[in-house]
């Protein structure tokens, strides 16, 4: 005692008639007697027995048996540091006493170390958690939900598997405890009971009420739950993300055959072919004047047909007669060949690579302002709990966005809240619907889809409600530290990485190895062109029949120069109309005179 005083260790003498003590220290050295026994009981009732280190000096005969008997009524569980010292000859033996948990009354004694004047303190070769890792068949009760098989799978033998299930099974084997569990119905992770700010439902409620010691399913770590339960260290980090399908843009499908080249290139090609037609028309006229090998020059309509045939790579029934004209024709043919080759190659890439419609949003905040899109979550998901309960009364920006999405978008229709992830993904594929789900969980179910449907579902880049999932424990659970130590060793040994790869691997690859088949939307423009061409053909046929009937019956339409729908054009500007009419009449006279001269020259040549 004199040495402790010299080391500035505070020593208090407790009197037996004291009924209340204050607990302000993290370590106590006590002489075990009736007064200190009462002190231990009060520390246990106050819940601080496991939060401080205790060293009891046993000076009286039979004190160890009395202490072991008292421990059976104290909360000196597996995480406590209740040590005592017994003296034997010139050495002291330091031991600890504890119970595994509240369900076991038997006190267990272990050697911490020995002390001697010559050798000093010699600790036990095993650390505290290693000494106490064997629970000796301690009975534990678990609680779980049957929602995601890859997290927890319930075996017919009574065991559990899956990512969390395998971790719980490993802990059970490592620490030698027995376990029975209860499986709750539905998405019963836990939320506040209606009208209460303290009582929880689901797995959280089972831990809060002491009906379970641990969860055998994953439980998200959130601040509100931490006030009534505790967790192991995080097993995996998850986030909520936006999942949406890339729907086919039908308007782009209709324009797919025009998309391989830009507008300027189309204009350039058309202008090039028209220019070649003008050159061909000019050469034909000029060649006929100097080298009259045929009766008359090709008309503009025939020249246009030449260039159209060259452009369509179809040839023509009649070809230009002069060598210079043929060169122009073949130049047009070669130009169109190059254009067709480039167009075909680019068209194939445009038809093979799906170009999804552009989304009007990319973040949760932008989604909250949409009117043409719906969004939803799984029933009782953490998103729902946070938006309706956790964020109630909060002024943070994150809570504001969550509440806006919940009130404006999700609550717009009761069908937006789905009963399973599979149902949510199907709504994404069929409707303009955004599913807000856990990244690893949603990707797990997306992998069950066909390659075509799976590649259509995309996850947007934002992450929301990011946090860990862990094994839930009772508040101030005595097993937390030893479970955390074992989980950390699993992580360091690579077992956690192996389990993640086996159960939570959510990698999805969308490659072009899958077979691509054309759908009706890919070639819809062809049918529109066919119907459009047939319609124009019927209109022209009707016009021809009417003209033929009018000609047969001697009916001539009333002619008027430069008329539009039977009335003079620009009738408000009569003088200008007369001037234009006179100009066209003069040009017509010149062309007729030229054709008369050409005709006379041909007759003269044929005569002589």
From TrEMBL:
Subcellular location: Membrane
Transmembrane found in the keyword field: yes
Membrane protein topology class: Multi-pass membrane protein
Pfam family for this entry, one: Lig_chan
InterPro entries per record: Glu/Gly-bd (IPR019594), Ionotropic_Glu_rcpt (IPR015683), Iontro_rcpt_C (IPR001320), IR75A_N (IPR057074)
Keyword terms, alphabetized: Glycoprotein, Ion channel, Ion transport, Ligand-gated ion channel, Membrane, Receptor, Transmembrane, Transmembrane helix, Transport
Molecular function in Gene Ontology: ligand-gated monoatomic ion channel activity
Domain Ionotropic glutamate receptor C-terminal residue range list: 147-506
Gene3D superfamilies documented for this protein: 1.10.287.70, Periplasmic binding protein-like II (3.40.190.10)
Gene Ontology cellular component terms for the protein in this record: membrane
Main location, first listed in the record: membrane
Domain of life, source organism: Eukaryota
Similarity annotation: Belongs to the glutamate-gated ion channel (TC 1.A.10.1) family.
Name of the protein: Ionotropic glutamate receptor C-terminal domain-containing protein
